[in-house]
Amino acid sequence: YREVLAHEPDNLPALGALAELLCLSGRRHESAIHLFELVKQDCVSTTQLCYLADITRPVVDKSLLEQACRTVPNDPLPRLGLAALALAEKDYASDIRHAKHILTFDACQLDGQAVLGECLVHVNDQQGLREWDRSLPEQLQNQSAMWFVRGLWADKNRRSELARACFQAVLRRAPDHPRASFRLSQLLMLEGKQEEAEFYARRATRMKEINMAVQDVVRSGGHADTIIKVAGHMQFLGRPWEALAWYRCVPEYRRSEPVRQSVRQLVDALREEPPRVLPLASMQLDLQAEAIWQREGVASLADAAAADKQSASRTVPCFTEEAHLECVGLEMGSPI
Questions:
Q1: Separation CA 172–CA 144 (nearest Å)
Q2: Which of 75, 76, 98, 263 has CA 20 to 30 A from 282's CA?
Q3: What is the dihedral of CA 255, 256, 259, 260, to 10 degrees?
């Protein structure tokens, strides 16, 4: 597909096929670039919109990925898809094995590094996580996925100020990150910052509702009312391109004046070529996350790794992200 696109950059079927292949192989951040281009060209399918709705969720076809691994054992790409599924299934041993295999071929593989880092947090491998953070390639250091892993670690180890800074760093780079939005709302609520907490909680709720609707669309094609609701949620979250694309999936929208009005507003807004997700300009997101991590996070992670060496039976602090997320419908990495 890349060869076709090198000669025919406007070949949209090839672009769509490449985007779906990247989704399946776990390269969700790369796939989003191509899916967004299809959205902008008004040549995107409902299935492709579902894939773009939440790039933190893996796309399921486990049997195909396993077959690909058997056919070409040295190909690292199917293993990345399997690693993403293993994380969703909480099979952390398989997850680490797949991720490390991938990264021996390409240490700059963003999704592979993100999957490995998150898995190391869940198994409480402090030394492994310290090495992971220290060895991240420079071009990945400030990616939203890496800040999310750091935030999970800080949250798990009850360093709430550090966790808040990390999750804010995620949302400054990826304003539509569901789990970072939810965790930040919880931390702000504990700090008594109710107005800010409610802002992020509302966004997390909208993302939950999108995820539920996407599951319905994938299973049954989705009712027109469901698709229109997804479009409205996208508009609320500052994702105007996708909002318009979802509206266009339902020709019946022309019969509804409120929907027609929303479409007109979106068409006008898109003339200025905004990014896929509008930044959260109204919120005071912490711009000092990197400095805070270097000042506190690196040292804290080193201390935790040293403590691990001294005691194999180290007590693990209470970490309730999974229970919280299951309650609000934002389960960690639930597959599409």
A1: 8
A2: 263
A3: 50
Q: Taking the chain, what is the end-to-end CA distance rounded to the nearest angstrom?
A: 24
**Other beta carbons less than 10 A from residue 228's beta carbon:** 22
pLDDT band of residue 294 (cuts 50, 70, 90) is confident
pLDDT tens sequence across 101-118:
889 989 999 999 999 999
Q: What is the pLDDT of residues 240-284, one digit of tens each?
A: 999 999 999 987 766 788 888 999 999 999 999 999 999 986 555
- Distance separating alpha carbons of residues 249 and 4, to the nearest angstrom: 28
pLDDT above 80 for 322: no
Note the Cα 181 to chain centre separation in Å: 11
Q: In angstroms, how far apart are the furthest CA atoms of the chain?
A: 68
**Cα–Cα distances in angstroms (integers) from residue 295 to residues 45, 191, 252, in the given order:** 46, 22, 55
* Rounded Cα–Cα distance for residues 66 and 82 (Å): 8
**What's the pLDDT at 254?**
66
Own/partner contacts of 169-172, CB < 8 Å, gap of 24 or more, are 169/142, 169/144, 169/285, 169/286, 169/289, 169/290, 170/144, 171/200, 171/280, 171/285, 172/279, 172/280, 172/285, 172/286, 172/287, 172/289
